[in-house]
Write a structure and sequence with these properties.
- The complex is a heterodimer.
- The longest helix of chain A is centred in the middle third of the chain and has 21 residues.
- Chain A is 41% helix and 19% strand.
- Chain A has two domains: 194 residues, Thiamin diphosphate (ThDP)-binding fold, Pyr/PP domains (Rossmann fold, 3-Layer(aba) Sandwich); 109 residues, 3-Layer(aba) Sandwich (Rossmann fold), CATH 3.40.50.920.
- By secondary structure, chain A is α/β, with parallel strands linked by helices.
- In chain A, helix 1 packs across helix 2 and helix 10 packs across helix 13.
- Chain A is globular.
- Chain B is of the alpha/beta class.
- Chain B has one domain: Rossmann fold (3-Layer(aba) Sandwich), CATH 3.40.50.970.
- Helix content of chain B is 38%, strand content 17%.
- Chain B contains eleven helices and nine strands.
- In chain B, helix 2 packs across helix 9 and helix 5 packs across helix 6.
- The radius of gyration of chain B is 18 Å and the shape is globular.
- Classes of the chains: A alpha/beta, B alpha/beta.
- Chains A and B meet through strand 3, helix 3, helix 4 and strand 9 of A and strand 1, strand 2, helix 4 and helix 6 of B.
- Strand 9 of chain A pairs parallel with strand 2 of chain B.
């Protein structure tokens, strides 16, 4: 008998909190910042420490929170933190340490307009920070871009699964719209937290106490250059595997398209409307929505570049992802950009006008 | 007595604790770190908690503490050890968790983490090595550098008009409701070593008993950074450091508050 799905109405930020509890997270560490404070508020409201045993802690800063994530992940625990742009900037040092120490965890960035203190309105201007590294040194995050409340829940689970698959930090790169808007969502099923024994099996490297083994050390330090180079080469081999296996994207009416709009997150929602408006005018427009921003769907863009007349990237920024589209297309067809900044969201109509002016001549 | 008789087990009066590895130490001769490491290792062995203990190493000279102490370890970013330890203990409450931090790590870059970890009453131990100088980076001024003391970044002596005052961080931590035990020790003489070991054991036991945060400060010498012989450094420490940082318990009580 098919079990009836339980459909709920909630904010994207709330969906993250519920998904974290349900997928067996061991700990959340965060610091309040708009527009994502509902993540911690929901967790505190739910009191998971009384049900699943999940720890929820309001840290004294984003810096402390990401280092708590380091400590928890180093114990093999399933942990996450969430913040918004200025707070995520503060976390960058810690993220770099986590990437180098090869610890699995999830960092959620519900982006707001910057630079500086900026605004609390939605933005996608942390794209570079998320996909190019962000902190110091050569490292990458697995970056997932949800565009609905359903995906806020689903990708919380997926991002943590990928983090443990590759022992690497993953990021949910959402924006203020996806965080704040309310939609229907089917929450993931409850999965019990792993037992201590299961953690010892899954994470034999973790600091779970030196019992019948050599002591485990979580560190990102290697004073010898050759040793540090070996660490870097190991990371790069891992990243190559991720590029090979984990690219995810969605396409809307790309099969017969003459032009492709590339957009992620809330911009992809605008993009769907742009495709509809364009098709009404006889312009064969398709939408490519990267779901993983890193690894980027480079090969798919290269494939599409052989059949279309041009691309336009739509972003809540001055134009960041467009650089990766251009790198993929490599000059074979035009790649244009349209976006709004500082928290302003483009309308479908103005986006179509820009498309016509820049690309469809 | 023949050599063969001397090495009989019943004649054994001292042996190196198994919680110390055989890795040669990188610390300078005369440095306090080696003695403090050994005391912590002995305490862990005597309390039978090697399998339960997780240490957090700082940035600074003792960054490689994990090479010498044979327990699980995490190496934290500069100043962040208390945050790292907070999560380890919250997520594994049956473990004995300690940080090992220098004055720059604990009282400059990590002040916020130190204060808030203590204020939450996390059930961890903070071992705080105060030698009033940044040793690893080559002898720069620390928050605990004494007034008039010369370092590479206050080469004419710490003038409080320019550099501010030496920070008595342990006194501050003793004021917080979350700390249960704050003590200041040294390891420069046998009597002090015996007392310091007692303090270490008490602090580790507090962590296991869930009494709150324990802070054990070790007023230490850095003869290399101070540019003195080990012996002279100890004499200078007694005369100058102990005057500003007097030895003894600053607090020994049950904690008042503890959340979740």
């Amino acid at each position: 008998m098919k079990v009836m799905e339980e459909i709920k109405l909630m904010k994207g930020n709330e969906a993250i909190a519920h998904a974290a509890i349900r997928c067996g997270c061991d700990g959340y560490f965060g610091y309040p910042i708009t527009p994502q404070s509902e993540v911690m508020e929901t967790l505190m409201q739910e009191k998971p420490w009384e049900t699943t045993g999940m720890v929820v802690l309001q840290a004294e800063s984003e810096v402390a929170a990401i280092n708590m994530v380091y400590g928890g992940a180093g114990c093999g625990k399933k942990v996450l933190t969430s913040s918004s742009s200025p707070g995520v900037s503060l976390k960058q040092e810690g993220i770099s340490y986590i990437a180098c120490a090869e610890l699995p965890c999830l960092i959620v960035n519900v982006m707001r307009g910057g630079p500086g203190l900026g605004t609390i309105q939605p933005s996608q201007a942390d794209y570079f920070q998320a996909v190019k590294g962000g902190g110091h040194g050569d490292y990458k995050l697995i970056v997932l871009a949800p565009s609905s409340v359903q995906e806020m829940a689903d990708f919380t689970v997926l991002a943590l699964d990928l983090a443990f698959k590759y022992n690497t930090p993953s990021m949910l790169l959402a924006d203020g719209i996806v965080g704040q808007m309310m939609e229907k969502v089917v929450l993931p099923p409850f999965v019990p937290r792993r037992t201590e024994e299961e953690i010892r099996q899954q994470c034999p490297w973790a600091t779970t106490g030196k019992v019948n083994r050599k002591s485990n050390v979580i560190t990102s330090l290697a004073l010898q250059a050759e040793e540090m180079e070996e660490t870097n080469l190991r990371l790069q081999r891992k990243y190559a595997q991720i590029v090979e296996n984990e690219v995810r994207f969605e396409e809307v009416q790309c099969d017969d398209a003459d032009y492709i709009l590339v957009a992620f997150g809330s911009c992809a929602r605008v993009g769907e409307k742009v495709v509809e408006l364009a098709r009404n005018e006889g312009i064969k427009l398709g939408l490519l929505r990267p779901i993983t921003l890193w690894p980027f769907p480079t090969k798919e863009i290269q494939r599409l570049a052989k059949q279309v007349k041009g691309f336009m990237s739509l972003e809540l920024s001055a134009g960041q992802m467009v650089e990766d589209v251009r790198l993929a297309v490599n000059g074979t067809v035009p790649v244009e950009f349209y976006g709004r900044q500082g928290g302003v969201v483009p309308l479908a109509e103005e986006t179509l006008a820009a498309l016509k002016e820049k690309l469809v001549k | 007595m023949t050599a063969k008789e001397i090495i009989k087990p019943e004649n054994l009066v001292y042996t190196k604790t198994k919680v110390m590895t055989d890795v040669p130490m990188h610390y300078c001769p005369g440095c306090s770190h080696g003695v403090i490491h050994k005391l912590i290792a002995e305490a862990i062995e005597e309390m039978g908690i090697q399998e339960k203990t997780i240490g957090v190493a700082p940035v600074g000279c003792s960054v490689f503490a994990y090479n010498y102490l044979d327990v699980d370890f995490q190496e934290a970013a500069h100043g962040r050890a208390p945050a790292v330890a907070t999560a380890i203990k919250r997520l594994q409450p049956d473990k004995c968790v300690f940080t090992y931090q220098g004055d720059g790590d604990l009282a400059a870059i990590g002040t916020a983490e130190t204060i808030h970890t203590c204020n939450r009453g996390e059930n961890i131990v903070i071992f705080f090595i105060n030698n009033a100088i940044y040793g690893m980076t080559g002898g720069q001024m620390a928050p605990t550098t004494l007034e008039g003391m010369k370092t590479s970044t206050c080469p004419y002596g710490r003038n409080t008009d320019i550099y501010g005052f030496p920070l008595k961080i342990s006194d501050l931590l003793a004021e917080l409701d979350g700390t249960c035990y704050v003590t200041r020790q040294s390891v420069h003489k046998v009597g002090n070593i015996v007392k310091a070991k007692k303090a270490i054991k008490k602090a580790l036991q507090n962590s296991m008993d869930g009494k709150g945060t324990s802070v054990v400060e070790f007023v230490s010498s850095c003869n290399s950074g101070w540019k003195m012989s080990p012996h002279k450094a100890n004499l200078w420490m007694e005369e100058n450091m102990f005057a500003k940082y007097p030895l003894g318990d600053l607090k020994d009580t049950e904690k008042k508050h503890y959340g979740q």
